[in-house]
Design goal:
With 137 residues, this protein is mostly helical. The protein is built from four helices and no strands. The longest helix has 48 residues.
Length: 137
């Protein structure tokens, strides 16, 4: 299930390169914050996938809800002349960095555990190989 957010991210990147349309004016603010919200959801989905807690329905509703909240903040900010898109960018950026940090730690821990497991298996195999000739037939 961890593949869903990664596949969604790859599809989004490919579509971004294929559809080469310049974004102008206020739409750029909306799109930029929406992309940050989507990346936050993808990072959160990847994290929950590695933790074994991933649910597709939670991911999809969170993805849509995060984007809607981000777009609403930008819309509200433009109505009251306060740059609320900066708030959304700061919050989603912070969450992305936190999730990426946790993903890095989980991957590093998994890699270190794999190395230790292989080392222990090699030691056990070496001990069994030493004991095998000593046992009488």
């Amino acid at each position: 299930m961890i593949l869903v957010p990664i596949v969604a991210l790859v599809i989004g990147i490919v579509l971004g390169f294929v559809i080469n349309t310049p974004v102008k004016g206020d739409v750029a603010l909306y799109l930029g914050v929406a992309v940050l919200a989507g990346l936050d959801s993808v990072c959160g989905g990847s994290r929950s996938g590695l933790e074994g807690k991933f649910h597709t329905d939670v991911f999809i509703t969170g993805f849509i809800f995060n984007i809607l909240i981000a777009v609403f903040l930008v819309w509200l900010g433009t109505r009251i002349n306060v740059n609320l898109y900066l708030v959304a960018a700061l919050v989603f950026g912070t969450r992305i960095f936190n999730n990426l940090s946790l993903l890095r730690r989980m991957a590093l821990t998994k890699w270190q555990d794999g190395r230790q497991r292989k080392q222990i298996e090699a030691e056990v195999a070496a001990q069994q190989a030493q004991q095998a000739p000593q046992t009488p037939l």
